[in-house]
Amino acid sequence: MKSLIAVLTVVGVLVVIWYAACVPMNIKGVLTEAERAGAVVVPEGARERRNLGAFGLVAGNSFAIPATWSQKRPRLPAPHQVAIELWQTTVMKKITSKRSLVHHAWITLSATLLGFGIGTGLGILLAVGVVHSRVMDMSVMPWAIVSQTIPIIALAPMIIVVLYSIGVQGVLPKAVISAYLSFFPVVVGMVKGLRSPDMMQLDLLATYHASKPQGFWKLRLPASMPYLFTSLKIGIAASLVGAIVGELPTGAVAGLGARLLAGSYYGQTVQIWSALFMAAILAACLVGLVEVIERVTLKRMGMAA
Amino acid sequence: MSNESDSQVVVEAKSLDLTFQTNDGPVQALKDVNLTINKGDFVSFIGPSGCGKTTFLRVLAALEHPTGGTVTVNGMSPDEARRKRAYGYVFQAAGLYPWRTIAKNIRLPLEIMGFSKAEQEKRVKDVLQLVDLEGFGDKHPWQLSGGMQQRASIARALAFDADILLMDEPFGALDEIVRDHLNEQLLELWARTGKTIAFVTHSIPEAVYLSTKIVVMSPRPGRITDVIESPLPKERPLDIRDSREFLEVAHRVREGLRAGHAYD
After folding, report:
1. Between B95, B109, B140, which is nearest A201 by CB?
2. Does the structural domain B3-86+163-259 have CATH classification 3.30.1780.10?
3. Per-domain residue ranges for chain A?
4. Which helix (H) or strand (E) holds B43?
Protein backbone atom coordinates (compact mmCIF):
# COMPACT_ATOMS: atom_id res chain seq x y z
CA MET A 1 0.00 0.00 0.00
CA LYS A 2 2.77 2.38 0.98
CA SER A 3 4.69 1.63 -2.19
CA LEU A 4 1.52 2.18 -4.24
CA ILE A 5 1.20 5.66 -2.79
CA ALA A 6 4.85 6.34 -3.59
CA VAL A 7 4.42 5.18 -7.18
CA LEU A 8 1.27 7.23 -7.68
CA THR A 9 2.94 10.29 -6.18
CA VAL A 10 5.82 10.06 -8.65
CA VAL A 11 3.41 9.61 -11.56
CA GLY A 12 1.35 12.55 -10.32
CA VAL A 13 4.40 14.82 -10.06
CA LEU A 14 5.51 13.85 -13.57
CA VAL A 15 2.06 14.60 -15.01
CA VAL A 16 1.98 17.99 -13.29
CA ILE A 17 5.43 18.88 -14.63
CA TRP A 18 4.31 17.76 -18.06
CA TYR A 19 1.19 19.96 -18.03
CA ALA A 20 3.26 22.89 -16.76
CA ALA A 21 5.81 22.39 -19.52
CA CYS A 22 3.08 22.49 -22.17
CA VAL A 23 2.28 26.13 -21.33
CA PRO A 24 5.58 27.83 -22.32
CA MET A 25 6.21 25.27 -25.09
CA ASN A 26 2.94 25.97 -26.88
CA ILE A 27 2.18 29.56 -25.97
CA LYS A 28 3.44 31.18 -29.18
CA GLY A 29 1.39 28.95 -31.43
CA VAL A 30 -1.68 29.45 -29.29
CA LEU A 31 -1.32 33.23 -29.33
CA THR A 32 -0.95 33.30 -33.11
CA GLU A 33 -4.14 31.28 -33.49
CA ALA A 34 -5.95 33.45 -30.94
CA GLU A 35 -4.95 36.66 -32.70
CA ARG A 36 -6.19 35.28 -36.01
CA ALA A 37 -9.49 34.51 -34.32
CA GLY A 38 -9.79 38.11 -33.20
CA ALA A 39 -8.58 38.04 -29.59
CA VAL A 40 -6.49 40.84 -28.10
CA VAL A 41 -2.92 39.67 -27.56
CA VAL A 42 -0.04 41.64 -25.99
CA PRO A 43 2.13 42.47 -27.79
CA GLU A 44 0.30 42.40 -31.10
CA GLY A 45 1.70 40.67 -34.15
CA ALA A 46 3.60 37.37 -34.38
CA ARG A 47 6.69 39.25 -35.54
CA GLU A 48 6.76 41.31 -32.34
CA ARG A 49 6.49 38.21 -30.22
CA ARG A 50 9.15 36.21 -32.01
CA ASN A 51 12.02 37.32 -29.82
CA LEU A 52 10.13 37.49 -26.55
CA GLY A 53 10.58 34.87 -23.82
CA ALA A 54 7.85 32.27 -23.46
CA PHE A 55 7.35 32.98 -19.75
CA GLY A 56 6.84 36.66 -20.39
CA LEU A 57 4.17 35.88 -22.97
CA VAL A 58 2.41 33.55 -20.57
CA ALA A 59 2.41 36.26 -17.90
CA GLY A 60 0.93 38.83 -20.28
CA ASN A 61 -1.68 36.55 -21.83
CA SER A 62 -2.83 34.25 -19.07
CA PHE A 63 -6.23 33.79 -20.79
CA ALA A 64 -4.46 31.61 -23.36
CA ILE A 65 -3.16 29.02 -20.90
CA PRO A 66 -6.02 26.48 -21.23
CA ALA A 67 -5.62 26.55 -25.00
CA THR A 68 -2.02 25.34 -24.68
CA TRP A 69 -3.40 21.95 -23.61
CA SER A 70 -5.79 21.50 -26.50
CA GLN A 71 -3.96 22.57 -29.66
CA LYS A 72 -4.34 20.43 -32.74
CA ARG A 73 -0.64 20.38 -33.52
CA PRO A 74 1.13 21.42 -30.32
CA ARG A 75 4.86 21.41 -29.96
CA LEU A 76 4.34 19.39 -26.80
CA PRO A 77 0.99 17.61 -26.56
CA ALA A 78 -0.65 17.43 -23.14
CA PRO A 79 -0.92 14.05 -21.37
CA HIS A 80 -4.65 13.73 -21.98
CA GLN A 81 -4.18 14.41 -25.70
CA VAL A 82 -1.70 11.55 -25.93
CA ALA A 83 -3.96 9.33 -23.85
CA ILE A 84 -6.95 10.05 -26.11
CA GLU A 85 -4.88 9.41 -29.24
CA LEU A 86 -3.63 6.15 -27.75
CA TRP A 87 -7.16 5.10 -26.88
CA GLN A 88 -8.53 5.97 -30.30
CA THR A 89 -5.77 4.24 -32.23
CA THR A 90 -5.77 1.06 -30.17
CA VAL A 91 -9.11 0.21 -28.63
CA MET A 92 -11.34 2.18 -31.01
CA LYS A 93 -9.65 1.11 -34.25
CA LYS A 94 -9.90 -2.25 -35.91
CA ILE A 95 -6.56 -4.05 -35.70
CA THR A 96 -6.54 -4.46 -39.48
CA SER A 97 -6.71 -0.67 -39.98
CA LYS A 98 -3.52 1.03 -41.12
CA ARG A 99 -4.05 3.64 -38.44
CA SER A 100 -4.25 1.09 -35.63
CA LEU A 101 -1.31 1.34 -33.27
CA VAL A 102 -1.82 -2.29 -32.34
CA HIS A 103 -1.17 -3.17 -35.96
CA HIS A 104 2.00 -1.07 -36.02
CA ALA A 105 3.11 -2.40 -32.66
CA TRP A 106 2.67 -5.95 -33.93
CA ILE A 107 4.85 -5.25 -36.98
CA THR A 108 7.59 -3.92 -34.72
CA LEU A 109 7.07 -6.67 -32.17
CA SER A 110 7.54 -9.42 -34.74
CA ALA A 111 10.86 -7.93 -35.82
CA THR A 112 11.81 -7.47 -32.16
CA LEU A 113 11.09 -11.07 -31.23
CA LEU A 114 12.83 -12.48 -34.28
CA GLY A 115 15.86 -10.24 -33.63
CA PHE A 116 15.83 -11.09 -29.94
CA GLY A 117 15.81 -14.80 -30.77
CA ILE A 118 18.70 -14.45 -33.21
CA GLY A 119 20.64 -12.16 -30.85
CA THR A 120 20.15 -14.39 -27.83
CA GLY A 121 21.14 -17.53 -29.73
CA LEU A 122 24.19 -15.85 -31.18
CA GLY A 123 25.10 -14.36 -27.81
CA ILE A 124 24.93 -17.71 -26.04
CA LEU A 125 26.97 -19.43 -28.76
CA LEU A 126 29.65 -16.73 -28.63
CA ALA A 127 29.76 -16.90 -24.83
CA VAL A 128 30.21 -20.67 -24.92
CA GLY A 129 33.05 -20.21 -27.39
CA VAL A 130 34.67 -17.46 -25.34
CA VAL A 131 34.54 -19.50 -22.15
CA HIS A 132 35.95 -22.65 -23.71
CA SER A 133 38.56 -21.26 -26.05
CA ARG A 134 41.25 -18.81 -25.17
CA VAL A 135 41.65 -17.88 -28.81
CA MET A 136 37.99 -16.90 -29.03
CA ASP A 137 38.23 -15.04 -25.74
CA MET A 138 41.05 -12.93 -27.13
CA SER A 139 39.58 -12.47 -30.62
CA VAL A 140 35.81 -12.24 -30.22
CA MET A 141 35.42 -10.10 -27.14
CA PRO A 142 37.19 -6.98 -28.48
CA TRP A 143 35.04 -7.07 -31.64
CA ALA A 144 31.88 -7.53 -29.64
CA ILE A 145 32.75 -4.46 -27.61
CA VAL A 146 33.74 -2.43 -30.67
CA SER A 147 30.47 -3.39 -32.36
CA GLN A 148 28.55 -1.65 -29.61
CA THR A 149 30.48 1.60 -29.87
CA ILE A 150 29.25 2.27 -33.41
CA PRO A 151 26.03 4.33 -33.30
CA ILE A 152 23.29 2.04 -34.53
CA ILE A 153 21.63 4.93 -36.34
CA ALA A 154 24.73 5.14 -38.60
CA LEU A 155 24.98 1.41 -39.10
CA ALA A 156 21.31 0.61 -39.67
CA PRO A 157 21.02 2.07 -43.21
CA MET A 158 24.14 0.19 -44.29
CA ILE A 159 22.82 -3.11 -42.97
CA ILE A 160 19.57 -2.55 -44.80
CA VAL A 161 21.27 -1.58 -48.06
CA VAL A 162 23.67 -4.51 -47.93
CA LEU A 163 20.91 -6.99 -47.18
CA TYR A 164 18.67 -5.47 -49.85
CA SER A 165 21.43 -5.88 -52.43
CA ILE A 166 21.49 -9.63 -51.76
CA GLY A 167 17.73 -9.77 -51.95
CA VAL A 168 16.79 -9.81 -48.27
CA GLN A 169 13.83 -7.58 -47.42
CA GLY A 170 10.90 -7.37 -45.09
CA VAL A 171 11.17 -8.31 -41.45
CA LEU A 172 14.63 -9.82 -41.59
CA PRO A 173 16.78 -6.67 -41.99
CA LYS A 174 15.01 -5.11 -39.02
CA ALA A 175 15.52 -8.29 -37.04
CA VAL A 176 19.23 -8.24 -37.91
CA ILE A 177 19.59 -4.72 -36.50
CA SER A 178 17.61 -5.76 -33.48
CA ALA A 179 19.85 -8.82 -33.01
CA TYR A 180 22.91 -6.61 -33.39
CA LEU A 181 21.86 -4.65 -30.33
CA SER A 182 20.65 -7.55 -28.22
CA PHE A 183 23.46 -10.09 -28.59
CA PHE A 184 25.94 -8.03 -26.62
CA PRO A 185 24.36 -8.07 -23.14
CA VAL A 186 23.76 -11.80 -23.60
CA VAL A 187 27.42 -12.43 -24.43
CA VAL A 188 28.65 -10.42 -21.46
CA GLY A 189 26.15 -11.93 -19.02
CA MET A 190 26.63 -15.50 -20.21
CA VAL A 191 30.42 -15.31 -20.15
CA LYS A 192 30.18 -14.19 -16.54
CA GLY A 193 27.55 -16.81 -15.76
CA LEU A 194 29.40 -19.70 -17.39
CA ARG A 195 32.51 -18.70 -15.45
CA SER A 196 30.64 -18.33 -12.16
CA PRO A 197 31.32 -21.84 -10.75
CA ASP A 198 34.26 -21.58 -8.35
CA MET A 199 37.49 -23.57 -8.37
CA MET A 200 36.17 -26.06 -5.84
CA GLN A 201 33.20 -27.00 -8.01
CA LEU A 202 35.46 -27.46 -11.03
CA ASP A 203 37.86 -29.55 -8.92
CA LEU A 204 34.95 -31.68 -7.79
CA LEU A 205 34.03 -32.45 -11.40
CA ALA A 206 37.70 -33.17 -12.11
CA THR A 207 37.70 -35.82 -9.38
CA TYR A 208 34.80 -37.51 -11.18
CA HIS A 209 36.85 -37.40 -14.34
CA ALA A 210 33.98 -35.52 -16.00
CA SER A 211 34.35 -34.49 -19.63
CA LYS A 212 34.12 -30.87 -20.76
CA PRO A 213 30.62 -31.27 -22.20
CA GLN A 214 29.48 -32.87 -18.93
CA GLY A 215 30.92 -29.94 -17.02
CA PHE A 216 29.09 -27.59 -19.33
CA TRP A 217 25.66 -29.22 -19.17
CA LYS A 218 25.69 -30.20 -15.52
CA LEU A 219 27.52 -27.28 -13.92
CA ARG A 220 28.27 -24.25 -16.07
CA LEU A 221 24.95 -23.94 -17.87
CA PRO A 222 22.65 -24.26 -14.85
CA ALA A 223 24.93 -21.96 -12.84
CA SER A 224 24.67 -19.31 -15.54
CA MET A 225 20.85 -19.11 -15.54
CA PRO A 226 20.45 -16.15 -13.17
CA TYR A 227 23.00 -14.22 -15.23
CA LEU A 228 21.26 -15.15 -18.46
CA PHE A 229 17.92 -13.77 -17.34
CA THR A 230 19.45 -10.48 -16.25
CA SER A 231 20.98 -10.17 -19.71
CA LEU A 232 17.74 -11.12 -21.42
CA LYS A 233 15.92 -8.29 -19.71
CA ILE A 234 18.44 -5.79 -21.08
CA GLY A 235 18.56 -7.59 -24.41
CA ILE A 236 14.84 -7.54 -25.10
CA ALA A 237 14.60 -3.80 -24.47
CA ALA A 238 17.58 -3.27 -26.77
CA SER A 239 15.89 -5.48 -29.38
CA LEU A 240 12.85 -3.23 -29.43
CA VAL A 241 15.02 -0.14 -29.88
CA GLY A 242 16.83 -1.94 -32.71
CA ALA A 243 13.59 -2.84 -34.48
CA ILE A 244 12.31 0.74 -34.25
CA VAL A 245 15.60 2.18 -35.47
CA GLY A 246 15.56 -0.36 -38.28
CA GLU A 247 12.25 1.07 -39.49
CA LEU A 248 13.53 4.64 -39.73
CA PRO A 249 15.93 4.55 -42.70
CA THR A 250 13.84 2.19 -44.83
CA GLY A 251 10.93 4.53 -45.23
CA ALA A 252 8.88 1.70 -43.83
CA VAL A 253 5.14 2.22 -44.08
CA ALA A 254 4.27 0.19 -41.02
CA GLY A 255 5.70 -0.22 -37.54
CA LEU A 256 6.21 2.07 -34.56
CA GLY A 257 9.33 3.51 -36.18
CA ALA A 258 7.34 4.35 -39.32
CA ARG A 259 4.72 6.05 -37.14
CA LEU A 260 7.42 8.14 -35.50
CA LEU A 261 8.86 9.10 -38.87
CA ALA A 262 5.49 9.94 -40.46
CA GLY A 263 4.52 11.93 -37.39
CA SER A 264 7.65 14.05 -37.63
CA TYR A 265 7.18 14.57 -41.40
CA TYR A 266 3.69 15.98 -40.93
CA GLY A 267 4.22 17.73 -37.59
CA GLN A 268 1.84 15.31 -35.91
CA THR A 269 3.34 15.49 -32.45
CA VAL A 270 0.42 13.72 -30.83
CA GLN A 271 1.04 10.77 -33.14
CA ILE A 272 4.76 10.77 -32.31
CA TRP A 273 4.11 10.79 -28.60
CA SER A 274 1.49 8.09 -28.74
CA ALA A 275 3.88 5.92 -30.77
CA LEU A 276 6.58 6.57 -28.18
CA PHE A 277 4.24 5.56 -25.39
CA MET A 278 3.20 2.46 -27.26
CA ALA A 279 6.88 1.53 -27.58
CA ALA A 280 7.41 2.13 -23.86
CA ILE A 281 4.37 0.02 -22.95
CA LEU A 282 5.55 -2.72 -25.27
CA ALA A 283 9.04 -2.66 -23.72
CA ALA A 284 7.58 -2.82 -20.23
CA CYS A 285 5.41 -5.81 -21.20
CA LEU A 286 8.35 -7.62 -22.79
CA VAL A 287 10.66 -7.07 -19.82
CA GLY A 288 7.83 -8.08 -17.49
CA LEU A 289 7.30 -11.26 -19.49
CA VAL A 290 11.00 -12.16 -19.25
CA GLU A 291 10.79 -11.54 -15.52
CA VAL A 292 7.86 -13.90 -15.11
CA ILE A 293 9.69 -16.60 -17.07
CA GLU A 294 12.76 -15.99 -14.93
CA ARG A 295 10.82 -16.39 -11.73
CA VAL A 296 9.11 -19.58 -12.84
CA THR A 297 12.34 -21.09 -14.18
CA LEU A 298 14.50 -20.29 -11.16
CA LYS A 299 11.79 -21.46 -8.82
CA ARG A 300 11.57 -24.76 -10.64
CA MET A 301 15.34 -25.09 -10.43
CA GLY A 302 15.18 -24.39 -6.70
CA MET A 303 17.30 -21.28 -7.16
CA ALA A 304 14.67 -18.66 -6.38
CA ALA A 305 16.17 -15.96 -4.22
CA MET B 1 58.15 -57.75 1.19
CA SER B 2 55.56 -60.48 0.84
CA ASN B 3 52.81 -60.35 -1.75
CA GLU B 4 50.15 -60.10 0.86
CA SER B 5 51.49 -56.98 2.53
CA ASP B 6 52.13 -55.54 -0.92
CA SER B 7 48.45 -55.69 -1.82
CA GLN B 8 47.62 -53.86 1.38
CA VAL B 9 49.40 -50.69 0.32
CA VAL B 10 46.96 -48.10 -1.02
CA VAL B 11 49.08 -44.97 -1.22
CA GLU B 12 52.82 -44.83 -1.52
CA ALA B 13 54.75 -41.57 -1.79
CA LYS B 14 58.51 -41.59 -2.25
CA SER B 15 60.63 -38.43 -1.86
CA LEU B 16 57.77 -36.38 -3.23
CA ASP B 17 58.51 -32.75 -4.13
CA LEU B 18 56.14 -30.08 -5.33
CA THR B 19 57.18 -26.52 -6.12
CA PHE B 20 54.65 -23.88 -7.19
CA GLN B 21 55.86 -21.10 -9.47
CA THR B 22 54.29 -17.92 -8.14
CA ASN B 23 54.81 -14.25 -8.91
CA ASP B 24 56.91 -13.98 -5.77
CA GLY B 25 59.20 -16.77 -6.94
CA PRO B 26 59.04 -20.52 -6.38
CA VAL B 27 57.26 -21.84 -3.28
CA GLN B 28 58.12 -25.31 -2.08
CA ALA B 29 54.78 -26.75 -1.00
CA LEU B 30 56.07 -30.29 -0.44
CA LYS B 31 59.63 -31.41 0.20
CA ASP B 32 60.85 -34.99 0.34
CA VAL B 33 57.55 -36.48 1.52
CA ASN B 34 57.66 -40.23 2.15
CA LEU B 35 54.49 -41.95 3.28
CA THR B 36 52.70 -45.26 3.04
CA ILE B 37 48.98 -45.63 3.63
CA ASN B 38 47.61 -49.14 4.04
CA LYS B 39 44.18 -50.42 3.17
CA GLY B 40 41.64 -49.58 5.84
CA ASP B 41 43.80 -46.94 7.49
CA PHE B 42 42.33 -43.73 8.80
CA VAL B 43 45.15 -41.24 8.27
CA SER B 44 44.97 -37.66 9.49
CA PHE B 45 47.18 -34.89 8.22
CA ILE B 46 47.67 -32.13 10.74
CA GLY B 47 49.72 -28.97 10.68
CA PRO B 48 49.44 -25.21 10.37
CA SER B 49 48.47 -23.40 7.18
CA GLY B 50 51.00 -23.77 4.41
CA CYS B 51 52.37 -27.10 5.61
CA GLY B 52 51.21 -28.82 2.44
CA LYS B 53 48.61 -31.13 3.95
CA THR B 54 45.93 -30.07 1.49
CA THR B 55 48.44 -30.05 -1.35
CA PHE B 56 49.37 -33.65 -0.57
CA LEU B 57 45.71 -34.64 -0.70
CA ARG B 58 45.33 -32.83 -4.00
CA VAL B 59 48.34 -34.68 -5.38
CA LEU B 60 46.68 -37.98 -4.47
CA ALA B 61 43.57 -36.77 -6.32
CA ALA B 62 45.63 -35.71 -9.36
CA LEU B 63 44.45 -32.13 -8.89
CA GLU B 64 48.10 -31.12 -8.52
CA HIS B 65 51.09 -32.76 -10.10
CA PRO B 66 54.35 -33.33 -8.22
CA THR B 67 57.54 -31.82 -9.55
CA GLY B 68 59.71 -34.61 -8.17
CA GLY B 69 59.55 -38.09 -6.64
CA THR B 70 56.84 -40.66 -7.19
CA VAL B 71 53.40 -41.34 -5.82
CA THR B 72 51.09 -44.27 -6.49
CA VAL B 73 47.43 -44.79 -5.60
CA ASN B 74 46.32 -48.42 -5.68
CA GLY B 75 49.60 -49.09 -7.49
CA MET B 76 48.70 -46.66 -10.30
CA SER B 77 49.51 -43.05 -11.00
CA PRO B 78 46.98 -40.64 -9.47
CA ASP B 79 45.69 -39.85 -12.96
CA GLU B 80 44.97 -43.49 -13.71
CA ALA B 81 43.48 -43.96 -10.28
CA ARG B 82 41.10 -41.13 -10.94
CA ARG B 83 40.01 -42.69 -14.19
CA LYS B 84 39.33 -45.91 -12.28
CA ARG B 85 37.26 -43.93 -9.74
CA ALA B 86 39.59 -44.95 -6.93
CA TYR B 87 38.58 -42.15 -4.59
CA GLY B 88 35.85 -39.80 -3.51
CA TYR B 89 36.82 -36.28 -2.49
CA VAL B 90 35.10 -34.22 0.20
CA PHE B 91 35.89 -30.50 0.29
CA GLN B 92 35.68 -28.06 3.18
CA ALA B 93 32.48 -26.61 1.77
CA ALA B 94 29.72 -29.04 0.87
CA GLY B 95 29.55 -27.56 -2.63
CA LEU B 96 26.10 -28.95 -3.37
CA TYR B 97 24.42 -27.60 -6.50
CA PRO B 98 21.61 -25.31 -5.39
CA TRP B 99 19.53 -26.27 -8.44
CA ARG B 100 19.57 -29.96 -7.56
CA THR B 101 17.81 -31.71 -4.72
CA ILE B 102 19.94 -33.68 -2.25
CA ALA B 103 19.18 -36.93 -4.06
CA LYS B 104 20.05 -35.41 -7.42
CA ASN B 105 23.26 -33.95 -6.00
CA ILE B 106 24.31 -37.41 -4.88
CA ARG B 107 23.32 -38.70 -8.29
CA LEU B 108 25.67 -36.23 -10.03
CA PRO B 109 28.82 -38.40 -10.01
CA LEU B 110 26.72 -41.43 -10.92
CA GLU B 111 25.30 -39.64 -13.98
CA ILE B 112 28.77 -38.56 -15.02
CA MET B 113 30.14 -42.06 -14.62
CA GLY B 114 27.27 -43.56 -16.59
CA PHE B 115 25.48 -45.72 -14.05
CA SER B 116 22.07 -47.02 -15.11
CA LYS B 117 18.97 -45.23 -13.83
CA ALA B 118 17.97 -48.12 -11.61
CA GLU B 119 21.48 -48.41 -10.20
CA GLN B 120 21.55 -44.67 -9.50
CA GLU B 121 18.26 -44.92 -7.64
CA LYS B 122 19.50 -47.78 -5.50
CA ARG B 123 22.84 -46.22 -4.65
CA VAL B 124 21.36 -42.86 -3.73
CA LYS B 125 18.98 -44.63 -1.36
CA ASP B 126 21.83 -46.64 0.17
CA VAL B 127 24.19 -43.76 0.82
CA LEU B 128 21.43 -41.50 2.13
CA GLN B 129 20.82 -44.19 4.71
CA LEU B 130 24.53 -44.48 5.40
CA VAL B 131 24.82 -40.82 6.35
CA ASP B 132 21.49 -40.74 8.16
CA LEU B 133 19.66 -38.51 5.69
CA GLU B 134 16.74 -40.74 4.71
CA GLY B 135 13.73 -38.64 3.89
CA PHE B 136 15.79 -35.61 2.89
CA GLY B 137 16.41 -36.67 -0.71
CA ASP B 138 13.78 -34.33 -2.13
CA LYS B 139 14.95 -31.26 -0.20
CA HIS B 140 17.06 -28.57 -1.72
CA PRO B 141 20.44 -27.82 -0.12
CA TRP B 142 19.36 -24.51 1.40
CA GLN B 143 16.68 -26.35 3.37
CA LEU B 144 19.37 -28.31 5.27
CA SER B 145 21.70 -27.28 8.09
CA GLY B 146 25.43 -26.96 7.46
CA GLY B 147 26.13 -30.31 9.11
CA MET B 148 23.48 -32.06 7.05
CA GLN B 149 24.83 -30.49 3.87
CA GLN B 150 28.28 -31.80 4.68
CA ARG B 151 26.83 -35.26 5.32
CA ALA B 152 25.15 -35.08 1.92
CA SER B 153 28.48 -34.21 0.34
CA ILE B 154 30.05 -37.24 2.06
CA ALA B 155 27.20 -39.35 0.69
CA ARG B 156 27.97 -37.97 -2.76
CA ALA B 157 31.61 -39.03 -2.39
CA LEU B 158 30.57 -42.49 -1.23
CA ALA B 159 27.96 -43.07 -3.93
CA PHE B 160 30.25 -44.57 -6.55
CA ASP B 161 31.94 -46.97 -4.17
CA ALA B 162 35.48 -45.69 -4.25
CA ASP B 163 37.83 -47.49 -1.82
CA ILE B 164 39.51 -44.28 -0.76
CA LEU B 165 37.92 -41.23 0.78
CA LEU B 166 39.96 -38.02 0.63
CA MET B 167 38.61 -35.43 3.05
CA ASP B 168 39.95 -31.89 3.12
CA GLU B 169 38.90 -30.30 6.43
CA PRO B 170 35.34 -31.47 5.86
CA PHE B 171 34.13 -30.28 9.26
CA GLY B 172 36.30 -27.16 9.50
CA ALA B 173 33.41 -24.78 8.96
CA LEU B 174 31.07 -26.42 11.47
CA ASP B 175 30.63 -25.70 15.16
CA GLU B 176 32.15 -27.97 17.78
CA ILE B 177 28.97 -29.77 18.80
CA VAL B 178 28.02 -30.68 15.25
CA ARG B 179 31.63 -31.60 14.62
CA ASP B 180 31.71 -34.09 17.53
CA HIS B 181 28.57 -35.70 16.27
CA LEU B 182 29.87 -35.97 12.71
CA ASN B 183 33.21 -37.34 13.94
CA GLU B 184 31.37 -40.12 15.71
CA GLN B 185 29.29 -40.83 12.64
CA LEU B 186 32.33 -40.81 10.41
CA LEU B 187 34.08 -43.42 12.57
CA GLU B 188 30.97 -45.57 12.46
CA LEU B 189 30.81 -45.22 8.69
CA TRP B 190 34.49 -46.07 8.37
CA ALA B 191 34.07 -49.19 10.50
CA ARG B 192 31.06 -50.29 8.49
CA THR B 193 32.49 -49.70 5.01
CA GLY B 194 36.18 -50.49 5.55
CA LYS B 195 37.23 -47.51 3.39
CA THR B 196 40.69 -46.04 3.51
CA ILE B 197 40.38 -42.44 4.64
CA ALA B 198 42.87 -39.59 4.29
CA PHE B 199 41.68 -36.68 6.42
CA VAL B 200 43.10 -33.16 6.61
CA THR B 201 42.41 -31.21 9.79
CA HIS B 202 43.52 -28.29 11.96
CA SER B 203 42.23 -29.85 15.14
CA ILE B 204 44.45 -32.01 17.35
CA PRO B 205 41.56 -33.71 19.23
CA GLU B 206 39.82 -34.46 15.94
CA ALA B 207 42.97 -36.00 14.47
CA VAL B 208 43.67 -38.12 17.54
CA TYR B 209 40.07 -39.22 17.97
CA LEU B 210 39.61 -40.35 14.38
CA SER B 211 42.92 -41.71 13.20
CA THR B 212 44.85 -44.94 13.17
CA LYS B 213 47.78 -42.93 11.87
CA ILE B 214 48.55 -39.25 12.38
CA VAL B 215 50.87 -37.42 10.03
CA VAL B 216 52.26 -34.22 11.57
CA MET B 217 53.45 -31.67 9.03
CA SER B 218 55.20 -28.33 9.16
CA PRO B 219 55.55 -25.46 6.71
CA ARG B 220 58.24 -23.71 4.65
CA PRO B 221 58.95 -26.06 3.07
CA GLY B 222 55.97 -28.36 3.60
CA ARG B 223 57.26 -31.61 5.07
CA ILE B 224 56.42 -34.47 7.41
CA THR B 225 57.88 -34.09 10.90
CA ASP B 226 56.29 -37.09 12.63
CA VAL B 227 54.13 -40.10 11.84
CA ILE B 228 52.26 -41.49 14.84
CA GLU B 229 50.62 -44.92 14.86
CA SER B 230 47.71 -44.56 17.23
CA PRO B 231 47.57 -47.08 20.11
CA LEU B 232 43.84 -46.41 20.58
CA PRO B 233 41.40 -49.30 19.93
CA LYS B 234 39.23 -49.27 16.84
CA GLU B 235 36.13 -48.98 18.98
CA ARG B 236 36.10 -45.35 20.19
CA PRO B 237 33.34 -43.83 22.28
CA LEU B 238 33.51 -40.02 22.57
CA ASP B 239 34.74 -40.21 26.20
CA ILE B 240 37.90 -41.97 25.07
CA ARG B 241 39.14 -38.41 24.71
CA ASP B 242 39.60 -38.25 28.47
CA SER B 243 41.72 -41.39 28.62
CA ARG B 244 45.46 -41.37 29.31
CA GLU B 245 46.40 -42.90 25.94
CA PHE B 246 44.43 -40.28 24.12
CA LEU B 247 46.10 -37.45 25.99
CA GLU B 248 49.51 -38.99 25.40
CA VAL B 249 48.97 -39.14 21.65
CA ALA B 250 47.62 -35.58 21.64
CA HIS B 251 50.72 -34.51 23.56
CA ARG B 252 52.99 -36.15 21.01
CA VAL B 253 51.17 -34.44 18.17
CA ARG B 254 51.61 -31.11 19.91
CA GLU B 255 55.29 -31.82 20.41
CA GLY B 256 55.62 -32.70 16.75
CA LEU B 257 54.00 -29.44 15.72
CA ARG B 258 56.31 -27.52 18.01
CA ALA B 259 59.38 -29.39 16.73
CA GLY B 260 58.50 -28.23 13.22
CA HIS B 261 58.80 -24.65 14.46
CA ALA B 262 55.34 -24.33 13.10
CA TYR B 263 54.45 -21.32 15.17
CA ASP B 264 57.60 -19.27 14.78
Report:
1. B95
2. no
3. 2-74, 101-301
4. strand B42-46
